[in-house]
Amino acid sequence: MRKNIRIGVVCLARKTYDYAAAGALYQKAREALQAIPDVDWTFIEALVIEAEDTRAAAARLSACRLDGMAVITGTFHLGHLALTLKRAVDVPTLLWAFEELPYNGGKIRLNSVCGLNLNASNLYKAGFDDVHCTVGGDIDMDWLNAVRMRAALAQSHIGLLGYRADGFFNLSIDELAAFSKTGILVDHFEISDVTAQEANSASVAGYARIIDAGFDCSGINARQKQQVAELCARFRTFMEKNALTAAAVRCWPEFANMYGISPCAAMSVLQSEGLLLGCEGDLEGVMSMVICDALGGAPPFLADLSQVSFEENHALLWHCGVAPINLCAAGCVPSLDTYFAGGRGVTSGFVLREGRVNTVRIDSARGQTRFFLRSGAAVPMEKLLTGTYGKVVYDQNIRALLDDVTSLGVAHHFSLVYGDYERSFKIFAKIMGYKLI
To answer: Measured on CA atoms in the order 266, 291, 356, 285, is the torsion positive or negative?
Structure first.
């Protein structure tokens, strides 16, 4: 679900320039900003020119619990102004310059870009790295997306059900380091906390209808289908009761033994409704899903880089059967299958739809948090496998992509999200201080 954010906006100026024209441009910009959905704006309506104006603006903005701040260079101005604002409101900051107006009598009227340069230099040399710059009449929408992602992490409550999957040492994280960096809070639960959760009969019946309407269920028996519906209801109630933004599930090897089926099919159904459920206890994978979900497009999910073709330059993004059912390709019939765990591995089976995709992962290693990012296109393929999967042709050569993944030790789960968000993700990595891979 697209993340609602709070953004403060202030416009700086100096009276030796055409500050009246800057004020008119700022008024026009405010009107345009108010039309952007899912943003609560706090405007300092008057131009900020003097030091006392800046202190008053900083006091007001600092009281608003902002997710980001846009500092507009209406005209060139003194460097004190932006530094005073940033000291009081230490949130990701957009430095925004207007384009220069036609000259009037041989004089530069705004000198806005030079003011942006001054502020960017001052803030960089003061040690602030969460600063992004733009020039033009409109706000940078990719910066807003990046702020949405950061805010989503900061306000997230993730449940870890069980632990990471057996042998997946590379999915372990330092939870307090993650909290310190992002604000994300992780709580631990037992698998039995979900499987023993009471299932509302009306909710179970509703999910049974969804399953009948959405899947070819000929590969499972009636009891397994009922267990999927019940698990959907149990998961939803459990997450709502515990106020969880997302959950990372140790989905094997114990789950099928304890409950009778694996959770994959239920996760597929629930993710199509907007719940965020990650496989194999992968907390950073789920964190990656959280930021993708904040963009408000199609639901994200975790997948493996399972196969590469150097000759045809594509990769198979596959997982056992957890992708949201609403990502199924047109003409493909989704199925529920039992191909592992001794016939108890009830999973979704379908080919992913075509479209532009981003493959991302927040990934920590050797005391550093990295951000893996690759973009490409999911292309048509036949339904040849069990599980949920798609063929992706990346913008980068697949051999070079694989070399980066393996040589830098990136963990083997990636959040796949549809859309064209590459620039938004790059800005996010910058304002978070993540090394971009």
So the answer is: negative
Domains of the chain: 5-139 (3.40.50.10940), 152-436 (3.40.275.10)
Closest listed residue to residue 308, CA positions, set 411, 400, 413, 418? 400
In angstroms, what CA-CA distances link 165 with 37, 68, 169, 279, 343? 39, 37, 8, 9, 20
Q: Name the nearest CA neighbour of 197 among 161, 251, 235.
A: 235
Provide DSSP, 183-197: --EEEEE-HHHHHTS
pLDDT tens-digit series, residues 283-299:
999 999 999 999 999 99
DSSP type of residue 253: S
Cβ atoms 432, 364 nearer than 8 A = no
Closest CA to 38 of 90, 89, 1: 1
State the Cα angle at 190 between 208 and 362, rounded to 5°: 90
Taking the C-alpha atoms of residue 74 and residue 355, their distance in angstroms, rounded to an integer, is 40
Mention every residue, 6+ apart, whose C-beta is less than 8 A from residue 418. 297, 298, 327, 353, 355, 356, 357, 358, 378
Q: Which amino acid appears at position 39 of this protein?
A: V
Count of residues making up the chain: 437
Distance from C-alpha of 381 to C-alpha of 5, rounded to nearest angstrom? 38
Q: Beta 346-351 vs 355-365: how paired, if at all?
A: unpaired
Please give the sequence-ordered ranges of beta strands (E in DSSP) within 35-176, or none if there are none. 39-43, 68-73, 93-97, 131-135, 157-161
Given a cut of 90, whether residue 106 has pLDDT beyond it is no
Q: Considering Cα of 376, then 374, then 316, then 346, what sign does the dihedral take?
A: negative
Q: What is the pTM of this model?
A: 0.96
How large is the angle between the packed helices 283-293 and 175-182, nearest 10 degrees? 20
Query: Rounded CA gap, 396 and 308, in Å?
Result: 13
Rounded to whole angstroms, the Cα distance separating 314 from 307 reads 8
What pLDDT digit, counting tens, does each position of 234-254 carry? Answer: 999 999 999 999 999 998 888
